[in-house]
Design goal:
By secondary structure, the protein is of the alpha+beta class. Helix content is 27%, strand content 39%. It has a four-stranded antiparallel sheet with strand order 1-2-3-6. A four-stranded antiparallel sheet has the order 5-4-7-8, with no helix packed on it.
Length: 180
C-alpha cells in the first residue's frame, strides 16, 4: 500500500490540474462581443443591454451593417433612433470606438422618406464636423476621431436635422452614447 501512495498522490495532482485548467483559461479569456444579428457589427455594452436599441437594430440589420461599414473598423453600434418619433422620417445611427491609439465617434442619418430632403448631420467635440446637403438616402458618415487622452467619444454631441421646404421636420440633438 505504501508503494501506491506516491503514485496515487501524483495521479490526484495531475487530474486536479487538468480539471482546473479549463476554468483558469476561461477566467483569463475575454467574453466574446455581442454582435447585431445578421451583421458583423458589434453592440456597444450599453446597446447590448438596451431592449429598444436591440429591437430597432434587429428590425433593420442591413442599415446597421451599412452604417458600420461606412464608419469603419472598430466601431460599435451605440444606438438607433427613429426620428422624429414613430413616424420615422429618418433614422439616426451612432457608433463609437474606444481603442488604444485612437478613439472615435461616428453617425449616419438615414432618410426614410424615399425622396430628396435637405439634411444636416453634425458631430461636435472641441470643433464640429458636418455633412449637409440634399440627400435621398442618407447624410454622413460623419466621424470625429482623436488620440487626445481627454477625448470621450461617447460624449460627442450629435445634431440631426431634416427639412421639408423651410420647415424642420427633424431636429434632434443628443450624445453619441450614454455620456457620464
Amino acid at each position: 500500500m505504501r508503494k501506491w501512495l506516491p503514485t496515487l498522490a501524483l495521479s490526484t495532482a495531475l487530474i486536479s490540474s487538468v480539471l482546473a485548467a479549463p476554468q483558469a483559461l476561461a477566467q483569463d479569456s475575454k467574453p466574446s462581443p455581442e454582435m447585431v444579428p445578421g451583421t458583423n457589427v458589434e453592440f456597444s455594452p450599453s446597446a447590448a443591454h438596451d431592449p429598444q436599441t436591440r429591437a430597432r437594430a434587429a428590425a433593420d440589420p442591413a442599415a446597421v451593417q451599412a452604417g458600420g461599414l461606412l464608419c469603419g473598423s472598430g466601431y460599435r453600434l451605440s444606438f438607433v433612433d427613429p426620428l422624429p418619433d414613430s413616424r420615422r422620417f429618418g433614422t439616426l445611427f451612432t457608433y463609437f470606438k474606444e481603442v488604444r491609439g485612437g478613439n472615435g465617434a461616428c453617425a449616419v442619418f438615414d432618410n426614410n422618406l424615399g425622396s430628396k430632403k435637405h439634411m444636416k448631420l453634425k458631430l461636435c467635440w472641441t470643433t464640429c464636423k458636418v455633412d449637409e446637403g440634399s440627400f435621398s438616402d442618407y447624410a454622413g458618415p460623419v466621424k470625429y476621431e482623436s488620440n487626445d487622452p481627454d477625448f470621450q467619444p461617447r460624449c460627442v454631441m450629435v445634431n440631426a436635422l431634416m427639412w421639408e421646404g423651410d420647415v424642420a421636420i427633424i431636429d434632434r440633438q443628443t450624445h453619441v452614447a450614454a455620456c457620464d
